[in-house]
Amino acid sequence: MHDPYMTTEELSHEIARGVQFWGCEDSGSLVGVMGSQDVDDVTLIRHAYVRTDYQKQGVGTELLAHLRAMASTPVLIGTWADAHWAIRFYQRHGFHLVSLEEKERLLRKYWRIPTRQIDTSVVLTDQRSL
Asked: How far apart are CA 15 and CA 67, in angstroms?
């Protein structure tokens, strides 16, 4: 068994900051989770994970569609630049990468992350301009 991605304390902190988590179950077992957070004039997709044995079965697609349907503002997704599988997933669902300059502006405006993480991340959006 793997250690959890987040401790209970970290999860509580994210919820306190306004992240709403949604899950997908199969036979009572959590197989996928994705969070959304309204920040100013955008919705951030946060902490998206699908159990390895449930990937490529529509779990992430279902969660993403649910969160997008609830969003009334442009949706932004930040992920690691090296997470090519995640970037391809979001691109298949109509998101596109923003420019380097736009990425830095958006990450500094809407996320609270260290500079090192900004340097190693990308941002995708479902809007052509924000």
From this structure: 16
pLDDT of residue 127: 79
- With CA atoms as reference, report the closest residue to 44 among 80, 90, 75: 75
Query: Where do the domains of the chain lie, and which CATH numbers do they carry?
Result: 8-125 (3.40.630.30)
d(CA 75, CA 93): 12
**Taking a C-beta distance cutoff of 8 angstroms, is the pair 85, 49 a contact?**
no
- Residue 58, Ramachandran bin (φ over 0: left; ψ between -120 and 50: alpha; else beta): left
For the stretch 75-103, what's the b/e string if a residue is b when 16 or more beta carbons lie within 10 angstroms of its beta carbon?
A: bbbbbeeeeeebbebbeeeebebbeeeeb
Binned average pLDDT, 10 residues per bin, the chain of 130 residues: 70 90 94 96 94 94 96 95 96 96 96 91 83
b/e sequence 33-55, b meaning 16+ C-beta within 10 Å: bbbbbebeebbbbbbbbbeeebe
pTM of the model: 0.88
Distance, CA of 40 to CA of 37 (rounded, Å) = 10
